[in-house]
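debug: dumping io for the single-chain case to check the tokenizer round-trip. Nothing else runs in this session.
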Amino acid sequence: MEELTHYINGARVAGASGRFADVFNPATGEVQARVPLASKDELDAAVAKAAAAQPAWAATNPQRRARVLMEFVRLLNRDMDKLAEALSREHGKTLPDAAGDVQRGLEVVEFCIGAPHLLKGEYTDSAGPGIDMYSMRQALGVVAGITPFNFPAMIPMWKFAPAIACGNAFILKPSERDPSVPIMLAELMTEAGLPEGILQVVNGDKDAVDAILDNETIQAIGFVGSTPIAQYIYSRGCANGKRVQCFGGAKNHMIIMPDADMDQAADALVGAGYGAAGERCMAISVAVPVGDDTADRLIEKLVPRIEALKVGPYTAGKDVDYGPLVTGAAKERVLGLVESGIEQGAELVVDGRDFRLQGYEDGFFVGPHLFDRVTRDMDIYKQEIFGPVLSTVRAKSYEDALAHAMDHEYGNGTAIFTRDGDAARDFANRINIGMVGVNVPIPVPLAYHTFGGWKKSGFGDLNQHGPDAFRFYTRTKTVTARWPSGIKEGGEFSIPVME
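debug: decoded output
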């Protein structure tokens, strides 16, 4: 069995705590590796080495730092297939979806190559008599990221690329469920020319997280995961005087207006609801058709599409629509919520409970489910399922549909499908949700905009990637300067004498 490592000072380092976690093959249910879980002492030692390396990196010309990222992009493209295969093997995603995971992280790295421009300060000459004033963006020092299992390539790059471009050293604590790709990314950064100690990968569980939260050297923390853990990290990190941004759970609604192209809406829902087995914080998990006629037409379009989905391991080919969930516990939780939906009165239109894949009976596969006539009081509506389950809530009117999305405690993403520009414009302006799609089911912004949810989906003042990332990973210093005069009368050509 493979024994994984940490990545410290540019090399793989075996764990010293004696504690390990199993890493599963989600398709077979077998343990394929074990990953070390760092102690507080191991985490603190990695931070100390990062702190020693960081001043020289911060003093490096921003353009030279950007060149490291340029080379990293080249290496990512070179190793794309290798990274995707490793990601699929531990997470369960299909190969095209895994490559997309890497690609969306790569795009943020490409944006960060613009660091020399993004780090420019401001300047005012003659702010007062003989006074100039200017500001500088300077690195924080050592910062950290705690990243989730569902995007083991993309989200680490969303965190460490802007942080490192700004001149910080970075401590990455990836998910212990699929830790291989973050180590591979760190190795590629070293190959690209990043100095030792600037990117440290420390695997671990809650002990490592608490050590990050309490370490006095770490100045800022970025987190993506569930809302309860986001709240815990945000409150404890802020209490310890750190800058913290945390992104939590989601329950994303898609409103379907009566005038929508129903084939387009159905295709969008199937892809957004069941892609990656629903293990996306931007997955559409609630369809909100306006009016019973719209709902009936939508369900009619959805059923054959959902029943035709191909579920299987990534090794079965690129025509697989989605793979297994990441763990057996995740599978049991999803199936438990499906049972609660039935018990609480929802209509199960497509039943995936009996799904079995020959040869992979012990894998963590869950068949696709479609519920209709879901109401606000049901657990499948209130909770983030994080599985291949789509709930349909029938709205009486546009205002009723809008209220469903606005009243929910989560506010990550949402979408509206309509041909009516006025309805779309009203929706985009009024909705209290951070990312909005108009005839776009998963409105994840491109790298040069920012990503972030509202309400209980996001904690902190600044979003991920885009310009906000450069604000988050730097602090502004403002200098007011006045220089004394004394040479305006010209040079002195006589030898100075005592008077």
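debug: round-trip ok. The first helix runs from residue 40 to 58.
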